[in-house]
Structure of Tryptophan--tRNA ligase:
Amino acid sequence: TERPIVFSGMQPSSDSLHLGNYLGALVNWVALQDEVDPIYCVVDLHAITVAQDPAALRESTRRTAAQYLAAGIDPERSTLFVQSHVPAHAELAWVLSTITGFGEASRMTQFKDKSAKQGADGATVGLFTYPVLMAADILLYDTSLVPVGDDQRQHLELTRDLAGRFNSRFGETFRIPEAYIPETSARIYDLQDPTSKMSKSAASDAGLVRVLDEPNATAKKFKSAVTDAEREIRYDRTAKPGVSNLLDIYAAVTGRGIPEIEAEYAGRGYGDLKKELAEVVVDRLAPIRARTFELLADPAELDRILALGADKAAERAEVKLAEVYERVGF
Ligand code: ADP
Ligand code: NA
C-alpha cells in the first residue's frame, strides 16, 4: 500500500532553529519518515514576502537545510529541497491565484495581522498572496496530510477550497489535503516569558534556546529561566507556567513522562532542575550542532544533497503542473 504523502515546510529562519522548532516540528518530521512519504521544503519563496537581506537569506536557507539533515532528515527517505529550486511552485501559484477571490484572500487573518504591522504601503502583494503559494506547495505533490499549527489552519482551508474549485471547474486534478495533528507534539514557551510561545520573533533573546547556540549560552539561559516564588517542582500550566515549561522540555528531550520527572525532583530545588535540564538539552543538541557545522563546512556536499532533492521534487511537481496547464488550456 502507498504511504500517505505529507508536505511540510519551514521558512529559513535567522541563524539557527530554536528549541520550539526542533521539539515541536523537526522531531516529528524525523519520526514520520518511517510511516509516510514526506516532502520537506525550506520555503525561501515565502521568506521574501517580508523584506530580506539577500546574503542573509542565502546563508539561512543553507543553515536551515543543514539543521534538518543534522537532526535526522534522511534524503533517501524524504524529499528534502529548497522551494526556489523547483519553479513549479511559483508557476502553480500563478494559476491558483486566478481562481482565488480577492475577497476570499482578504479574509486571511494572518495577512491582516502581518500587514497591520507593516503599515499602509509596507505590505506587499506577495504577502497578500502568500496563502496561494502555500496552496501550490501542498497541491503539487498530491499531499494527503499537512501538519499545521493554529496559525496555518485558515490557509489549509483555503488550499482545500481552491483544490475543490479547480477540480469542479476543470476536472479532477488535485487531491484534497487534510490537516494532520501529530499524537505527540510539544509546544515550547519562552524561558523568560513562559506564557508566550518560544519564537524567533521574540523581543528578547534571553528566553530563546537556539539549536546552534554554544553549550555555555544554553546553560546560562536555562539557569536564568523564569519560575515562581514557590519551591515545589510540580506541573501546573496555569499557576506555574515557567516550571511546567521546563518539565515539558525535559519530557520532550528525554522521552520520559512528567509524573516520573516530578517524582525524581521531589524535595529538590529549581536550581537542580534547571542545571540538569540544561545538561540533557545540551547533550541532545550537541551532535546536531556538530553535524550542522560539518555540513556547512562542506558546501559542495550540501549543494549535492539539495540538488538531488530538488530533482526528486521537480520530477513529481512537473507532472502535476503539466496536467494543470493542459486543463486550463495551455
Ligand atoms: P517562529 O514562531 O519562531 O517564527 P515558525 O512559525 O517559523 O517559528 O515555525 C516553524 C515550525 O516550528 C512550525 O511547524 C511551528 O509549528 C513550529 N514551532 C515554532 N515555534 C514553536 C514552539 N514554540 N513550540 C512548538 N513548535 C513550534
Ligand atoms: Na512565525
Residues 10-11, 13, 20-21, 24-25, 149, 186-188, 197-201 surround adenosine-5'-diphosphate (ligand 1) (CB under 6 Å). The CA atoms of residues 255 and 325 lie 48 Å apart. The beta strands are 5-10, 37-42, 79-82, 145-147, 178-180. The mean pLDDT is 95.
